[in-house]
Amino acid sequence: MNALGGDRPILVTGAGGLVGSAVAAELARHGLPVIAVYRKNYPDALSAFPGLVLVPADLRDPTGLPQNYRALVHCAAEVPGLCPDGTELYRSNVEG
Question: Across the strands, what pairs with 52?
């Protein structure tokens, strides 16, 4: 059992981005089991961490998301500069 209690992993969304990948890496550095969810960009650097599992998924389709985790760190988001379609931006950031 680790410091946060239990052996279930921490789910980190947005692991393909700057913030999500940094959070997932830091948790893994501390020996915590992590499920790192990414959608577009495969986070190559995270594959080096033992205890970290990379899962491709889209938050708009929750059927593809892991169900058994102890905590969620939500870092996924679209930014207007990379997603200029307002409807798509809303779907990803609010509905997702």
Answer: 34
**28, 46 Cβ separation under 8 angstroms:** yes
The Cβ of residue 88 has, within 10 Å, a number of other Cβ atoms equal to 12
The 10s digit of each residue's pLDDT in 12-59 is 999 999 999 999 999 999 999 999 999 989 999 999 999 999 999 988
The predicted pLDDT at position 67 comes to 87
Residue in 41, 29, 34, 37 with CA at minimum distance from that of residue 9: 34
63 contacts: CB under 8 Å, gap ≥ 6: none
CA–centroid distance for 16 within its chain: 7
pTM equals: 0.85
List the one residue out of 19, 7, 3 whose CA is nearest residue 74.
19
